[in-house]
Amino acid sequence: MRRVVLNGTRKLARFEVVAAAILISLAVSCYPGELTNVAQTDIVATTFVKDAAWGSFDSVVVLDTVVHVIPEGSDTVEVSRDYDRQIINLVRQGFTDYGYTLIDQNSVDPDDPPQSAALIQVTAASTTVYWQWYSGWWGGWGWWGGWPGWGPGWGWGYPCCGGVGSTTYNTGSIFVDMLDLRAEVDDTTIKVLWSATVNGLLGGTSAGTEDRINRDIRQAFVQSPYLQANQ
Amino acid sequence: MKIRVLLAMIMVLAVGSPAYAQGDWWFGFAYETSLASGNTADFAGGLSWRGASFGGRNMVKENVSVGFWTAWHVMDEIGVETIDFDDEGFDLGATVTGDFFRYVNSFPIMMNVHWYSGLPGNTRISAGLNGGVYYIERRAEVGIFAVTRDNWHFGLAPELSVIMPMGWRSRGFLGARYNWAASAGGSGSITYWNFFVGVAWM
């Protein structure tokens, strides 16, 4: 009786198994479509006091200087001052578009401010996030508060096959605060009616940064329709 | 002579037509797509083209098998969104705009039982039920911030498929499956469909 040899068939089957495994594994990725440019890290967050007398303001005093907050002991300004004028102009335009009259800060008596005017202060700050990783664990820490429940979740060095590494990255934030000069305050507190925070990774080209600032500050006003003057 | 011819015919049939005896194991890989449903679709909707599975089945009867199945399914939703936070009882309202990245990674590990129509060696319809656990990670990113929740869920996954002979000891199959992972660890239930195509061999 002739023996049927199946060795060739078994080798072919093993090849098919390996080939199928490789091809299918290439089709899978945990987090498809991840960040591809720094602009995607931008977020625009606005908060407002619900029961404020919205509509009772018809003018604003936009301070013409961006205050840059730098860490104690440091003299390095991470958020470049090159964009200060652009930022101030965008903030002024945003309030103008909403029907506010701009008042020159030099014409205002601090002890007797206009009753229908709000004060606008722009601040800029940067944060350095330190990121460490080693094989089998993905973690890190940062000290910018953000908002509760969230933490830094972005970084390089997705571990593979063992190893330890660290990296740092800088984020920049622009804060626009609308202050109610009419509110009763103590010596150290002024009521903030509306606050806009623009946050994103520092980096990219100058033209790209200008586009991001332009887009994000405009968005802060778009998502705050209650700012409309004299409603 | 007639006996030799008859024996030769028997030999050809024996080699050319695999004898699928009870106790035979089949193993298979499949490419799988995923489509979230219900609340899961609100988090990461749309058809996802990323997924794969591996399984094995033992033919305990000519038309019944028991086996195991494991897979990796990815669902995602990416886009610029504006979200308002306006909860009653809070003095402050808030709005956030950014590029949101949301992901669901699901890893089912299950046992199963299947019933098959027709006869071995022909095209067959298979109906089955998978039962076991899902390890599911949900991740949401905006800006440089991210929050991740992962839990083990008990779950069930009924499925329907068509199995077609492809040649010596191999089969092609395609079908659909509904996944239901029960709520666990503060996470609600996760539901989604799979549509798959694969190859199995003995």
- Counting structural domains of chain B, the number is 1
CATH class of chain B: Mainly Beta
CA-atom Rg of chain B in angstroms: 23 Å
- Major sheet strand order of chain B: 1-3-4-5-6-7-8-9
Helix content of chain B: 10-25%
Number of domains of chain A: 1
Kindly report the CATH topology of chain B. Answer: Porin
The CATH level-2 architecture of chain B is identified as Beta Barrel
Biggest sheet details of chain A: 8 strands, mixed
Strand content of chain B: over 45%
Q: pLDDT below 50 for ≥5 consecutive residues: which ranges of chain A?
A: 1-12, 135-162
Keywords:
heterodimer, A: 231 residues, 9 strands, globular, disordered N terminus, B: 202 residues, Porin, 8-stranded antiparallel β-barrel, 2 helices
Summarize the SSE layout with pairings.
The complex is a heterodimer of chains A (about 230) and B (about 200).
Chain A: H1 7-26, E1 43-49, E2 59-62, E3 67-69, H2 84-97, E4 101-102, E5 117-134, E6 137-138, E7 151-152, E8 164-180, E9 192-201, H3 206-222
Parallel strand pairs in A: 2-4, 2-5, 3-5
Antiparallel strand pairs in A: 1-9, 5-6, 5-8, 8-9
Helix pairs in contact in A: 2-3
Chain B: H1 2-16, E1 25-37, H2 39-44, E2 47-48, E3 50-61, E4 64-85, E5 92-116, E6 124-142, E7 145-167, E8 170-181, E9 190-201
Antiparallel strand pairs in B: 1-2, 1-3, 1-9, 3-4, 4-5, 5-6, 6-7, 7-8, 8-9
